[in-house]
Structure formats: structure tokens, C-alpha cells
Amino acid sequence: MPNFIPYHPLSFSPEEQLRRAQEFFDLCNRRRTVREYSSKPVARELLETLIRTAGTAPSGANKQPWRFVVVTDPSIKREIRIAAEKEEKESYEHRMPQEWLDDLAALGTDWHKEFLEIAPALIVVFTIEYEKEGAKTHKNYYVKESVGLAVGLLLTAIHNAGLVSLTHTPSPMNFLQKILHRPVNERPFLLIPVGYPAEDVKVPDIQRKRLEEIVEWKAVSTEQR
Predict the structure, then answer these.
(1) CA distance 150 to 152
(2) Is residue 19's pLDDT more than 80?
(3) Is the model's pLDDT at 131 over the cut of 60?
(4) Domain ranges within the chain, ordered by starting residue
């Protein structure tokens, strides 16, 4: 039989619920992807707390199939940058169709990834496809979905702490597994530079979709009540 313990939910008045929801939206709405970093270091204790927050995410069958590898060693960051730029250069010059390049033009990106060396920390996120226990193999479930949820919490926690980040996905990313000496059951999922923004940093002038563009209601109309 499964073991259950009491749950003590948060409880707020409707007014307090709306106030908290609005404040949290205002906080999250200020989050932006940043590609220009200061080299100012980030405390290890802070990074650990951010990753603990990511680890609170729900996961398939509670398998928690994620691994966060934090890189602060300049030599390893440089090795990652060299390998990432090699793949990115090939993608920008040969792999990406013109439509993709046109969509990226508004962001001002190219294959140069200086931030991989300048940002004080790189958090490399790996999925854990399965676990090994002696000769036994234990399957993990909904791995990408679970890790995606954890990354969402991580990005929010980073922003909440007054730091900036970006989600970098050089493709293919197998070089991360090799450079960081990860076992075969771990697959690179995302590379997240974390740090403080460079002085006078600027971000692309782009807008998020309006609420009516991202939600559709299937509710009982007042006429039917």
C-alpha cells in the first residue's frame, strides 16, 4: 500500500489570490532572454537553491529524471563554447532553411556564442532516460515533459533571484555528454547560461502574444445557467 502524509495547502481570500497572481504575473512578465553577460560571479549557494527549486517540479511516476551539471570552470566553458560554435556555424550556414533564418533575424543571433564563456555559470540540463541498479534497468516515464517542467521552474527561479539566463540548444548536443563525461543513460536537453546582465544590456523589441491569442474558454454561458 502507498504511504500518504497530510497535505497543508496554502489558503487565501479571493482578493489575496488575485493580488498574488497579479504580482507573480508582473514579475514573470519582466523576464527576458539575455545574451550579454557580466563576468560577476554567482554564489554557489544561490545556484544550489535555484536548482533545488527546479527539483520541486512534478514528474512522471515521481522519477525526477533530471540532472543539472553546473559548469563554472573557465577551461570547460571554453571547450563547450568551441564545440557549440562549431555546430551552430554549420547550422546557420548549411542546416537551417531560409524561413528559420528569417525568423531568427529579429533576435539578432548568429553562430557566435561568446556568452558561453562570459556568463559565470552554465547549467547543463540532462534527461535521465532510465536508471541502473546493478543488472536491473528501471524505466523513467514522460522524461522530456518532466524535465521541461523542471526547466520552467528553474528559469522562473533564476529571474526571481535577480539573475538572467537564456535557453541555448545547439544541435546536435552530443558534445555536452562527452565534455561533461555523462553516462549513456543521460541525454543533453538544454544549456542555460546564468549570471548578471552586462551593463546597459539591450534585448530585442518583441512582444508576447495577447491573452486572447493563447487561451480559449469552454465554459457554460450565462444564458445556459
Answers:
(1) 5
(2) yes
(3) yes
(4) 32-199
